[in-house]
Amino acid sequence: MPYLWHNSRRKMDMTSVTAAPLQPASSTVQGGNAGVRMPAVAGRFYPANPAALAGEVQHLLSGNRPSRLGRVRALVAPHAGYACSGEVAGAAYRTLAGLPSAAQCTVYLMGPAHWKSVYGVGLTSATIFATPLGSVEVATDRLQQLARRNSQYHIDDAAHAPEHCIEVQLPFLQTVLAAPRIVPLLFDDAADPERVAGDLCSLLEDWPDDLIVVSTDLSHYHPYQEAIILDHGFLKALAMNDMPAANAGEACGLLPVLCLMHIAERLGWKPHLLAYANSGDTCGSHREVVGYGAAAYTE
Length: 299
What we know:
The chain is of the alpha/beta class. The chain has a single domain, classed as Protocatechuate 4,5-dioxygenase, Chain B. The chain has helices at residues 50-61, 82-93, 140-147, 157-160, 164-167, 170-176, 193-206, 224-239, 243-247, 254-267, 279-282; strands at 3-4, 7-11, 36-37, 72-77, 104-112, 121-123, 128-131, 134-138, 153-155, 179-187, 211-215, 220-222, 270-278, 289-298. Strands 1, 2, 3, 4, 5, 6, 7, 8, 9, 10, 11, 12, 13 and 14 form a 14-stranded mixed sheet that branches. Strand 1 and strand 2 form a beta hairpin. Helix 7 crosses helix 10.
């Protein structure tokens, strides 16, 4: 079972299911509504029924916010199906409860491009990302500012259409923030995380209420105990802001994580580990597992 990092003896119950192999799903920026990116994994990674999804997210968010946690500026959260990683994701998102800026804010939502190359950082032409809970506005003003900065940013709707790493974060954001806007950013191996960090720092200095969410899972397909060792080493590097050690670790969203670590170093944010589990704890066997971690960064 997943456990809270700050209290490793506290267990969290979770329904155990068998994880289905991940396959690309068809979606579109149009979908009959110009400028709307339609859900690609509703009904597979999370409930497609709005009432069921709202109830599931509320359940995953239940629990106490860590005490003496400062003002949260960034999160690291996993992106598997909710049955596998939802409890860990919930441990991250519940830290946003009570934010002074909870009424409105822009979230830079960074994750790995799983399905195609984006030749740096993939942006979207969509103005809305739809979920069963409603519409999430894309902060086109912030997105356009990034697109003008340098050549590593590209519009790539074909990469965003089937991508789950951004989509699964949205119901959490819709629940904990009253009116979130997002800047979806997909990284591939051509992205320069330090350069992106510099670009985002400039925007964060202009809009200090904006947030960052990094969507990443940890190690993939190692035996259970081996995965725990690898993942705890990676999370320790995260907690110590040790970029060389993190860079030697395993996470599908490694480059977005490194980008966040550069931002934290520049702006003086402090990391806090919140929760860890792997799929052997929640939804599958111990033979080959995927790791999930949650962290928050505070001022």
